[in-house]
């Protein structure tokens, strides 16, 4: 398909173009931000407010640079902001959810109750508690699932991905919450949620889908759901004290041909390593979708076992 499109672009396509008069015209929605804020607020009780809360927010110089702080202030919070000066080039540039130290420093500097860090298109969120601890998507999902189950909001269970921490899986098992893994990518999470009629799912990176409210990830919506849980004076550090992540090792092995993991030698090694770590953790070996690399991920409380299993697979690839 890509080659067909390129061929079409390279050819003389003037006769295939639409007449400018029937293309339509761009219309600027001047009150778009205000409407979006009101839509977000309608998901919560009218009396919900953030008065008394100090909140740090990093908007990654992206989509939420204006509406993020505006939303929090409209609910009464004292807001400390960074990543709110886009210039057309600095989106996600050393800021936002992929640079967690920025929100940690802002939260601690201002003694905020919580820090919120979004990515450029604001569909991803990570959090920093009042002590400076970074809370990833897995911990956010665990907190929401536990709360939703208690409030009888949770439907079916939770969808994570192949990269969701093993500690999260154990947490759900302990709390009798059904947990399914999809391929990596929020669209796969959404598909599995729809297939099983679940209303909560997401990724460690902070893509979280609140099926009770929306059909896709929305960092500000997730932020409000977290803040709603803090409205009775709950500290963020207590809210996210739900599970201890299992130690994880990730190795990226450069290869000439990614299909090497399908060779008899590699298949045998992967099987041996998987059997070794079974009941003690988890192993995932996969091709990179973007680079000529094989990614080996292993999780276990037994660090020696982690290294041993990774080395078994690594030797079969090198």
Features:
318 residues, Alpha-D-Glucose-1,6-Bisphosphate, Chain A, domain 3, TATA-Binding Protein, alpha/beta, 18% strand, five-stranded mixed β-sheet, single chain, 3 domains, 36% helix, four-stranded mixed β-sheet
Explain what this protein looks like in three dimensions.
- The chain is α/β, with parallel strands linked by helices and 318 residues long.
- It has three domains: 47-135, 3-Layer(aba) Sandwich (Alpha-D-Glucose-1,6-Bisphosphate, Chain A, domain 3); 136-245, Alpha-D-Glucose-1,6-Bisphosphate, Chain A, domain 3, CATH 3.40.120; 248-317, TATA-Binding Protein, CATH 3.30.310.50.
- The chain is built from eleven helices and twelve strands.
- The strands form three sheets. A five-stranded mixed β-sheet has the order 2-1-3-4-5, with helices on both faces. It has a four-stranded mixed β-sheet with strand order 7-6-8-9.
- α10 (264-277) packs antiparallel against α11 (303-317).
- The two termini are 34 Å apart.
- The mean pLDDT is 92.
CATH superfamily grouping of the largest domain: Alpha-D-Glucose-1,6-Bisphosphate, subunit A, domain 3
Q: What order do the SSEs take from the amino end to the carboxyl end, as H and E? A: HHEHEHEEEHEHEHEEHHEHEEH
What oligomeric state do these chains adopt?
single chain
Q: Please estimate the helix content.
A: 25-40%
The biggest beta sheet reads: 5 strands, mixed
Radius of gyration: 23 Å
Tell me what the CATH architecture of the largest domain is. 3-Layer(aba) Sandwich
Estimate what percentage of residues fall within beta strands: 15-25%
Number of strands: 12
């Amino acid at each position: 398909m890509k080659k067909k499109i390129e061929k079409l672009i390279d050819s003389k396509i003037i006769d295939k173009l639409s007449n400018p008069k029937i293309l339509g015209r761009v219309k600027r929605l001047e009150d778009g931000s205000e409407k979006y804020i009101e839509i977000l607020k309608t998901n919560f009780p009218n009396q919900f407010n953030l008065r008394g809360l100090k909140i740090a927010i990093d908007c990654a110089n992206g989509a939420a640079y204006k509406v993020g702080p505006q939303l929090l202030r409209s609910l009464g919070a004292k807001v400390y902001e960074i990543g709110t000066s886009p210039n057309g080039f600095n989106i996600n540039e050393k800021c936002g959810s992929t640079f967690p130290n920025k929100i940690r420093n802002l939260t601690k500097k201002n003694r905020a109750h919580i820090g919120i860090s979004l990515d450029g298109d604001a569909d991803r969120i990570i959090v920093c508690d009042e002590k400076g601890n970074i809370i990833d998507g897995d911990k956010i999902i665990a907190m929401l699932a536990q709360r939703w189950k208690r409030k009888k909001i949770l439907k079916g269970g939770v969808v994570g991905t192949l990269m969701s921490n093993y500690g999260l899986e154990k947490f759900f098992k302990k709390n009798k919450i059904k947990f399914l893994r999809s391929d990596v990518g929020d669209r796969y999470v959404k598909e599995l949620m729809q297939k099983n009629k679940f209303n909560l799912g997401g990724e460690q990176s902070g893509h979280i889908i609140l099926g009770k409210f929306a059909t896709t990830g929305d960092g500000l919506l997730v932020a409000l759901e977290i803040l709603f849980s803090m409205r009775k004076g709950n500290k963020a550090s207590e809210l996210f004290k739900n599970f201890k992540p299992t130690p994880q090792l990730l190795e990226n092995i450069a290869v000439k041909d990614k299909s090497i993991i399908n060779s008899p030698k590699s298949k045998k090694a992967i099987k041996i390593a998987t059997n070794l770590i079974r009941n003690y953790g988890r192993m995932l070996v996969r091709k990179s979708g973007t680079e000529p690399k094989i990614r080996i991920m292993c999780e276990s409380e037994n660090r020696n076992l982690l290294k041993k299993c990774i080395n078994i697979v690594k030797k079969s690839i090198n």
